[in-house]
Design a protein that fits this description.
heterotrimer, A alpha+beta (82), B alpha+beta (349), C alpha/beta (452), A: 82 residues, Arc Repressor Mutant, subunit A, three-stranded antiparallel beta sheet, two-stranded antiparallel sheet, 18% strand, C: 452 residues, Lyase, Ornithine Decarboxylase, Chain A, domain 1, TIM Barrel, nine-stranded mixed beta sheet, eight-stranded parallel barrel, 14 helices
Chain lengths: 82, 349, 452
């Protein structure tokens, strides 16, 4: 699981993918997750960190995270490890 | 003389290959002699070129599409007004005018923002499907037309209409049919896209001529400039045009504006047939994209509109320079990503 | 350390040329209360989904309509269109405001009688009236609006055995410039059928012709068709006066006024394009007043307005069952109500509001109902704040037709609640149970037992 290093996210959550030319807008928690993935954190580490910080139960977040990663994937932001 | 400072919001910043009237209107206002104008651009999408033309547009805001309803539009304008203190709004898109006309009294009363638009009644009366009545009421020739609801009706109307005939959609699209087969096929094509009814219109052959005009809403025509397109793009838009010396056409246009008590800018599209008779094809309820040609030939219609909207009474323009031309060109702006980001994420630029 | 409040992560592609969020967000204000009662409490007490009807809105809408017409015209009578919503409590709000009853079947007729509406204040419309129905209507002195010649002859037959006269009117259909033309109901004006029906009635001494009726269509967005219809009815009235020397008591313009719901496929919002009740009233009343009747001969104006009087008063409350992704990445939200109880989702892009506070993010989604049917779509495309499982939503303007055309398909119909003028909710129709449905079933003996 990795995110193209060229992909930049601004403070406002504006994300630009220079390899496709697409741009996106994400919310603060989405930005946080993308940053964690770029820092090469594992899924479990991400779940733990978010769980510590936000008022959300693990099941709900895991489900939301899976959905979020799916959208990142179909938009070619996230690549599965070979 | 110190020019009066005003803030005017303008839509139609889509200055693309088939341009909206926003940028020409803004140029007209920026160059006018009576006002020092701060321009607030109102946009529907993040790629409208006007958003990025900072020498003409001082600040821009995204506004909700007409389909979101007049209340959503009002709320957004209320916010923009709280920051910018608007004196006037000039909407330039056909599709948004319905909502702006609806809001115009509220804008005036609650926010003291002026507009200069036709009444809803007059606005509705020039819709394509109402054109025959419009013509009759204001004594202008219009091509004969009939609304039909089924392909069976095509056979019926063949007694009244000769081929070729024009098959038109309720809002957009028109095709010329040379036989019944084509008529039926266009009927299906257009009705699938725009619904029923379909308008069958008499085909008038001749030269197309256009007039940009402005009325005071009380029955006076303040200005009218006639133009013929010299060349058109593949989308049928003007590429270049020239002002005409055609007093009859100008008088005819004045009559439409006077009789309908049109308030604001409009574009009249005529066909002049071989016998020299004029037929009104369409009345567009806003300035055309080529309105700057009127400015260039001596009639600054947008400036006149602003004056009237702010309560001044003005004398009609008497003349314009004939033989003036416009030639449209496109220009590639170079824009940094952060600008696109700002308008996309915050709705302001 | 206290944890931060959570919002699920989302990412939206910035489309160019499509709806921007500055357009839709303003419309998404949470609707947490209906007439002062918390939506949460309504759902806790009456279940999800449930219909909620505001008595206050009905009365205000009705009074406004009465004002619009009666300030312009001296003799106006509304008759509540039962088919639009025939829950007895709803009907009785209208009757208590002075509205008569307009029914289109014997089932509705019985309902009106059961509600205590006097027989002579019931208008009996519709193409399906049996000999029994007509007999009872004659005996009750109801206003019988004849739809076709077969009904006219049947009525004549029945009257041979009755001592009483029948008070009748005919329904007329006509070209008012709208498409489609509703020529399947009543007698046609242009081809003279209406006039020939009138002559037959005039020739029958046991029929007393009291009025003339038309109903030109539904969700009429143009007032001018009402001007045409009114003027044609006035023509008939005048002709009857001249030819038969009879002055009819009333003309009945039916209903068909539009509400602020947005029709599917309409570019502009319903609220921005529909005429107001005053616009309709102005056109109809001025046409009659300018027609040239002598003041004492002015007919009473009957109106059978349904939709426009009840739509705004109805809400449907429901909950989010699940969130899904469709194969193309689109968000799908599944609700616990669908077209089974929200039949009007076929016609309208209903306004849907979240019933709780939300964050500033929003997303495009399709709203599905709970039925295992592909057609069960509440909204094809809507931009809403982020919804989570268990969140509540409020659907607006559902008062007309849903509580009469709903269907019992794989689910039971829910409770209907009316909030009174004091803000007190009352159950006005209980939810169905398995028993409600199976009570009418019968099991042949040979199928009663089986081994599996």
């Amino acid at each position: 699981m990795n995110i193209n290093k060229n992909i930049a996210i601004s403070e406002s959550g504006f994300l630009f993918n220079p390899s496709t030319g697409d741009s996106f807008s994400t919310n603060p928690i989405g930005k946080e997750i993308i940053t964690l993935i770029k820092e090469e954190q594992t899924l479990q580490q991400i779940v733990n960190q978010i769980h510590l910080k936000y008022a959300v139960d693990q099941d709900t977040f895991e489900k939301d995270l899976a959905d979020f990663l799916y959208i990142l994937k179909i938009n070619h932001i996230l690549k599965e490890d070979e | 003389m110190n020019k009066r400072k005003i803030t005017v919001a303008v839509t139609g910043l889509n200055n693309i290959d088939s341009p909206g009237p926003g940028i020409p209107v803004i140029r007209a206002l920026k160059e006018c002699s009576s006002f020092e104008v701060r321009i607030i651009g109102l946009s529907y999408e993040s790629l409208e070129p006007g958003l990025y033309m900072h020498d003409l547009v001082d600040k821009s805001y995204a506004i909700p599409l007409p389909s979101a309803g007049s209340q959503a539009l009002f709320n957004r304008i209320q916010y923009i007004h709280s920051v910018e203190k608007l004196d006037l709004i000039i909407p330039n898109f056909d599709a948004e005018l319905h909502n702006f006309i609806l809001l115009s009294p509220t804008l005036k009363q609650q926010l003291n923002i002026a507009t200069f638009l036709p009444s809803r009644e007059v606005f509705d009366s020039r819709h394509k499907s109402e054109l025959p009545e419009f013509g009759e009421k204001y004594e202008i020739h219009v091509p004969k037309s009939t609304m039909i609801f089924s392909t069976k009706d095509i056979q019926k109307i063949e007694k009244e209409y000769e081929y070729p005939m024009v098959i038109k959609g309720k809002f957009y699209d028109a095709s010329v049919a040379y036989n019944q087969e084509q008529a039926i096929s266009y009927f299906h094509k257009i009705s699938a896209k725009w619904g029923l009814p379909i308008i069958i219109q008499e085909y008038v052959s001749g030269t197309e001529v256009n007039v940009t005009a402005i009325g005071d809403g009380l029955g006076k025509c303040i200005g009218a400039v006639a133009m013929r397109k010299l060349y058109i793009t593949d989308k049928g838009k003007a590429w270049a045009g020239i002002t005409l010396d055609d007093p009859e056409l100008v008088v005819l246009s004045q009559k439409v504006v006077q009789n309908s008590k049109w308030r604001g800018g409009c574009e009249l599209e005529f066909i002049k047939n071989k016998e020299g008779k004029y037929y009104l094809l369409e009345m567009n309820p806003r300035f055309p994209a080529w309105v700057y040609l009127a400015v260039g030939s001596g009639q600054n219609h947008p400036e006149a509109l602003v004056k009237m909207a702010l309560g001044e009474t003005i004398a009609p323009f008497e003349d314009y320079e004939k033989g003036k031309m416009f030639i449209r060109y496109s220009y590639d702006l170079i824009v940094n990503m952060d600008q696109f980001e700002k308008i996309s994420t915050f709705g302001e630029l | 350390m206290e944890k931060l409040s959570y919002e699920r992560p989302i990412i939206n592609k910035l489309n160019t040329g499509l709806m921007n969020k500055f357009g839709t967000r303003v419309d998404n204000t949470p609707v947490t209360h209906i007439d002062g009662v918390p939506v949460k409490k309504l759902i806790a007490d009456f279940g999800s989904p449930c219909f909620v009807i505001s008595e206050r809105t009905i009365r205000e809408t009705y009074r406004n309509a009465v004002r619009a017409f009666s300030t312009r015209y001296p003799k106006v009578q509304f008759a509540w269109s039962y088919k639009t919503n025939y829950l007895n409590a709803v009907c009785n709000v209208f009757h208590s405001e002075g509205s008569w009853a307009e029914v289109v079947s014997y089932f509705e007729y019985e309902k009106a009688m059961g509600n205590g509406v006097p027989g002579d204040k019931i208008i009996f419309n519709g193409p399906d009236k049996t000999a029994r129905d007509l007999k009872i209507a004659v005996q009750n002195n109801s206003l019988i609006h004849i739809d076709h010649f077969d009904e006219l002859y049947l009525l004549a037959e029945i009257l041979k055995e009755e001592s009483q006269k029948a008070r009748v009117a005919i329904r007329v259909n006509m070209d008012t410039g709208v498409y489609p033309m509703w020529d399947r109901f009543g007698f046609n004006y242009e081809n003279g059928t209406a006039w020939s029906a009138i002559n037959k009635i005039m020739a029958n001494s046991q029929m007393e012709m009291t009025g003339i009726h038309c109903h030109i269509g539904t969700y009429m967005m143009s007032t001018s068709s009402y001007a045409v219809a009114t003027s044609k009815l006035c023509d008939l009235l005048k002709n009857i006066q001249q030819v038969h020397n009879v002055t009819l008591e009333y003309i009945d313009l039916g209903g068909g006024f539009a509400t602020a719901n947005t029709l599917r496929g309409s570019y502009l919002q319903g609220a921005d394009v529909i005429p107001t009740i005053d616009d309709y009233a102005e056109v109809i009343t001025s046409t009659i007043l300018n027609y040239g009747f002598r003041p004492e001969q002015l007919p009473t104006l009957f109106l059978e307005t349904g939709r426009a009087l009840i739509d705004d008063a109805g809400y449907l409350l429901g909950s989010v069952i699940a969130l899904k992704r469709l194969s193309d990445g689109r968000r799908a939200t599944i609700l616990d109500f669908g077209i089974n109880i929200l039949f009007t989702a076929f016609w309208y892009d209903h306004k849907v509001s979240p019933a709780q506070n939300f964050t500033s993010q929003s997303e495009d989604m399709v709203l599905y109902g709970p039925l295992c049917m592909n057609i069960d779509v509440v909204r094809e495309n809507i931009n809403l704040p982020l919804l989570n499982r268990g969140d509540h939503v409020v659907v607006h303007r559902v008062g007309a037709y849903n509580m009469t055309q709903w269907m019992q398909f794989i689910q039971m119909r829910p409770k209907v609640v009316m909030i009174d003028m004091q803000g007190m909710p009352h159950l006005i129709r209980n939810n169905e149970s398995l028993q409600t449905i199976t009570a009418h079933e019968r099991m042949p003996d040979h199928l009663a037992q089986f081994n599996l």
